[in-house]
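re: the backbone from monday

yeah here it is again, tokenized this time
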């Protein structure tokens, strides 16, 4: 296959009109119920195996991370919190000296660390601690054995998945420049479970697509080279800053729906295959076995979920592609699809595939949204942990948004597992009702 074919402009065949493309969006700017971006450390530290995440924050930040991670007492995770206490807040201690001391002690204890992230928080931003300068200073001190990078995980005006976006966007300037004479390369952007990454890599190899790199990589020494011949594709809809940073370095984005469910995964892989000029018959032969297995597994889940009403509170920014999957592949009825932010460019194909007339909301005024949820009486509510227990007490079945980020949900082999995450709360609610009736 010659390079002129491989580098032809990407030809997408996905819908860009219809559905909810031009639907009005209810924009709310009231009280919100979301985790902060520090939560992203939980899946990022599992992915980048030689990295360490040091939160510069309060004891509240430390408790949040520990609780979200469910860390056992005997575990030694690759994240910690440098506590900002009263002396720091009162200006009685030099915060930079304290930070240098903590980092030095950490790296002495953990010589396996190759990349250290200084993660800003609400407290560190309140006292105006310049972590970018601290990262530069510490990088010079510990280079070349350790690279120090900073990003903000503050919960001020953000939602919890934006922590990953901020982290990956901070990594982009550190990626080496690709040789201008090099051929096209593919960069898959977004944190994937290793098992999902391996599955996608096998598809790329079978179709002759490569070289392929993933951001983030499993090890900090495996940073992908990027340039004008780099094509990148997102696996998460909340990576807007990362996408802009890659485009600023000349990389070209491949437009596609997100790889959730059999249909979404096929469209996502198809967009990449089209960009590389893969023969249609070869593509079909490559994906058909896995796609058919996924469709068969989803058929069983569809029997249980079809016709059930679902309501999405805004939390993870995964809401629109999840709604597309649940509606088109499982027959669920969408009462409201709320999202913290609607990135219309990245979600164009997803919005076009939602049923016309679906209520879309952006942002949150939690009391008003709770009233709409109660009025709709959905069978299942997708929401954050802060709303789940009160809604369960009112008799609603709920699914935690954060579990959808922690779990491997992309790709063919995970399609049925993704469906089960929504079916399980309904099954649990039915068992509770059955036991109550028998009591």
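seq for it, each position gets an aa:
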């Amino acid at each position: 296959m010659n390079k002129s074919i491989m580098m032809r402009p990407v030809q997408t065949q996905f819908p860009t009109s219809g559905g909810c493309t031009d639907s009005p969006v209810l924009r709310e700017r009231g009280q919100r119920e979301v985790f902060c971006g520090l939560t992203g450390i939980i899946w990022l530290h599992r992915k980048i195996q030689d990295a360490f995440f040091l939160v510069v924050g309060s004891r509240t930040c430390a408790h949040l991370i520990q609780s979200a991670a469910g860390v056992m007492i005997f575990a030694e995770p690759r994240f910690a919190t440098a506590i900002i206490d009263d002396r720091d807040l009162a200006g009685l201690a030099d915060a930079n000296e304290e930070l240098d001391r903590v980092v030095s002690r950490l790296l002495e204890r953990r010589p396996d660390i190759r990349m250290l992230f200084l993660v800003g928080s609400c407290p560190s931003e309140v006292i105006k601690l310049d972590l970018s300068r601290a990262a530069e200073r510490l990088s010079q001190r510990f280079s070349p054995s350790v690279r120090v990078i900073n990003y903000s995980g503050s919960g001020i005006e953000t939602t919890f998945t934006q922590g990953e976006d901020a982290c990956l966007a901070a990594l982009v300037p550190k990626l080496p420049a690709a040789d201008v004479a090099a051929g096209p390369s593919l960069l898959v952007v977004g944190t994937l479970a290793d098992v999902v990454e391996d599955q996608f890599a096998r598809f790329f190899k079978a179709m002759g697509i490569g070289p392929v790199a993933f951001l983030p990589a499993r090890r900090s020494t495996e940073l992908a080279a990027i340039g004008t011949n780099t094509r990148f594709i997102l696996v998460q809809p909340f990576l807007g800053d990362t996408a802009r940073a890659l485009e600023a370095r000349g990389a070209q984005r491949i437009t596609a729906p997100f790889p959730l469910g059999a249909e979404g995964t096929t469209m996502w892989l198809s967009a990449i295959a089209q960009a590389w000029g893969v023969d249609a018959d070869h593509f079909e032969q490559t994906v058909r076995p896995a796609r058919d297995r996924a469709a068969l597994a989803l058929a069983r889940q569809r029997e249980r979920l079809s016709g059930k009403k679902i309501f999405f509170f805004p939390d993870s920014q995964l809401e629109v592609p999840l709604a597309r999957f649940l509606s088109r592949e499982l027959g669920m009825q969408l009462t409201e699809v709320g999202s913290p932010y609607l990135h219309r460019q990245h979600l164009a194909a997803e919005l076009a595939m939602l049923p016309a007339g679906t209520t879309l909301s952006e942002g949150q005024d939690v009391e008003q949204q709770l009233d709409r949820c109660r009025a709709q009486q959905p069978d299942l509510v997708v929401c954050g942990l802060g709303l789940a227990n009160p809604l369960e007490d009112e008799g609603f079945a709920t699914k935690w948004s954060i579990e959808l980020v922690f779990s491997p949900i992309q790709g063919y082999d995970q399609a049925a597992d993704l469906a089960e995450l929504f079916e399980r709360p309904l099954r649990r609610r039915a068992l509770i009702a059955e036991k109550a009736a028998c009591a």
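The chain has 18 helices and 14 strands. The longest helix spans residues 280-305.
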